[in-house]
């Protein structure tokens, strides 16, 4: 028989092995339940995909299928744009895919060349109403991708120079696209009429152009009224408003002149009334003087008459007065 200690150790090992097998089986069952709920399978085969290194960060290795998207995001990140600013940016090229609008792509070197050309054409000293050379940026700046960077990185003169460049490029593109419509095709049309050959698309467009012009000339002689540009319409609106303002200004002037005339007339009337009042008061004083003089003259005459009479006459008059007073008293009784 063996040693009892060895038998006990073997049994302990077997019991621990059984416990580990039960634990692994439970873990496998739990994993199978999780995969079933997620719809996954245990038989996964890893497919090796081609990777490419990012040109902006050598530590980045990205799959080939998403390298362009990673390049755009990594370039903006290197330029200092945050994740919030990148989320607000949109690719505007999608809007011009199926349209005839011509777009312009501006890179760093082209932007710097445009600014340098505008700076060389600007005056050296500061002048009123014109940007001078000190208002342009001398160092090349990255092309801004949003309005905030355009305002912070570029000056007002830089933005105006870029705007003028884009407008000039657009005009050149429009003129080059319309050159074929202004070609003199009279000789070609005569030759084609003689040879009875089928007309090209360019010739048909020229004929349609002439036909539309002819119809328009017969339809409306007053083209300057029927078809007006935006500038002409705005000019008419400005003229109407300026005429209205001039009319109101004239009315205000007329009212002011009327008020001045009325105030002047009022002053004249006041002066006239004051002079008439003074004249009336003077005439009243003169009349009162004349009356007082008449009274005094009458008193003097009476006095002279009294003095000329005798004392008997005075006594007789006194008696008469007494009799009259007595009679009046008796009548009152």
Automatic annotation (TrEMBL):
Cellular-component GO terms for this entry: cytosol; nucleoplasm; U12-type spliceosomal complex
Composition-biased stretches (Basic residues): 316-326
Coiled coil region boundaries: none
Pfam short name (any one): zf-U11-48K
Keywords (A to Z) from UniProt: Metal-binding, Zinc, Zinc-finger
Keyword Lyase: no
Domain CHHC U11-48K-type residues, every copy: 51-78
Highest taxon above the source species: Eukaryota
Residue span of region Disordered: 248-333
GO molecular function annotations of the record: zinc ion binding
Feature: compositional bias, Basic and acidic residues: 248-262, 305-315
Protein name: Small nuclear ribonucleoprotein 48 (U11/U12)
